[in-house]
Structure prediction request, 222 residues.
Amino acid sequence: MLRRILCSMILLSIAVTAQAQIGRSRPTASTEPGYWVGLSIGYMEGITTTDEATGATWRFGYTSQLRATFEKTVSPGTTVGLAAGFATGPLTYYAANQFTAACPSSCAARADITQYLAFVRSGGGGGWGFGSRFRPTFNAEGGVTRFSNFRDRIAETSLASDGGSYDFTVGFGAGIAYRIAQISEVYIDQSYDFIFHKQSSNTTNQSVPRLLTFRGGFTFGF
Prediction:
């Protein structure tokens, strides 16, 4: 009887130990979230261009841009995504006709600048140290930019524009990101976009408007 009890206890102990070994989870490498959403605020440098539809000249000053992003992880440290940026920029509006009632010759105005872009952002998952929290980032983007809702800065009178055409845009940028946690990151970067707006046929030898934006933001993974 005692022998049976001892054998049963030994077999039970072996079974429990084996089950514990099977059920014990092995350490796994940390993985990136599949998707990211982000928000940033940027400093947008002014640009100057002419408008084919109205013959007017737009001389924009600097302004701020609010930008939202949605990204998908395709490999460690690399994402593809969509971005939507919104800004209202001050400008000096030079009318093609100096007898224009809303803006004789020139006037202080403002207009909305909207961007819809697809982008690739990469920087490697290894980081620069400090627990691999810092890493460089590089991005390329393409899409459209829209200038619309031109109005006098004081009286809010509408000014002639092309109705808000969507101009092909392509750009690139670089920055630094800091991983706060596995699913959150803050970053600063600088992008340089070329905006192919149809310029006035009366003006020649103008370069493509280049929009420089310096921004800081955060992303959250899920």
